[in-house]
Write a structure and sequence with these properties.
By secondary structure, this protein is of the alpha/beta class. It is built from 10 helices and 8 strands. 37% of the residues lie in helices and 17% in strands. It starts with 21 loop residues before the first strand and ends with a strand.
Length: 241
């Protein structure tokens, strides 16, 4: 195995340097110093594989092993390898890195941590029971962007049908809507405990996680003397500037 000679930047190490366990890493511009034993702690991981046998990485101008990946959360990976301590912040981002480096014990423990467990087992399991949820989020963003030209806001009507009974009223409800009926995006029905407000919170959360600013308000219309009103409709507003 050949390690870089840190006294001679940019040059490969001499055979004598193989006895040194210290390794310097440059991960997307973030520099770390650790040991081979730390990196190899979980031999079946992708990270350990990079440092077993002949190194499989290029070196930078200073002789540090280079990984072309954002290293903002790699410190938390090293902390776990050194101490088995889990991060208390940026849990989902660290989880993504743990999956990338295939560090299975860290992935498993993060998925069992309260911060991640609620998202994975609670919210995501709920959303998997809402028909076409992910596709509808993509449709909302696509419509909003199409309507953003020379505008400060884009407003889209969404329809939330909580139950099969609500679904049965859909045609009457959509006929009563004084709006472009073709652009209404419909969610539901679903068989799970969370209510309409919970779903609206998820919609806002998942759109804002992609960098957009949105708000959701109930759609109100004047009630006619003989007309029936429905509370299925909400206005989703994107604010661009």
């Amino acid at each position: 195995m050949s390690l870089p000679d840190y006294k001679s930047p940019g040059k490969q190490s001499s055979p004598a340097a193989l006895r040194s366990p210290v390794v310097q890493l440059n991960i997307g511009g973030h520099v770390f110093t650790t040991t081979l034993s730390t990196l190899r702690k979980h031999p079946d991981s992708k990270l350990a594989e990079l440092f077993i046998g002949q190194p499989k990485l290029r070196t930078d101008a200073e002789g540090r092993y280079f990984i072309d990946r954002d290293g903002a959360h790699f410190g938390a990976i090293l902390d776990f390898l050194r101490t088995d301590r889990l991060p208390s912040e940026d849990v989902q981002q660290v989880h993504r890195e743990a999956v990338h480096y295939d560090i299975k014990p860290l992935v498993k423990q993060l998925e069992e941590a309260p911060q991640f467990f609620g998202e994975l087992v609670g919210r995501q399991q709920f959303l998997s029971r809402v028909p076409h949820y992910k596709e509808n989020i993509e449709v909302l963003i696509r419509i909003a962007r199409a309507e953003a030209i020379a505008a400060r806001h884009s407003t889209i009507m969404i329809c939330i049908l909580r139950t099969e009974e609500d679904l049965g009223l859909y045609d009457s409800a959509i006929s009563s809507l004084e709006a472009d009926k073709e652009s209404v995006v419909t969610f539901g029905p679903w068989k799970a405990a969370p209510n309409v407000r919970d779903l609206l919170d998820c919609i806002q959360m998942d759109i804002e996680s992609q960098g957009y600013r949105v708000s959701i308000q109930p759609h109100s219309r004047e009630k006619g003397f003989l007309s029936k009103s429905y509370d299925f409709f909400y206005k989703l507003t994107f604010t661009w500037w």
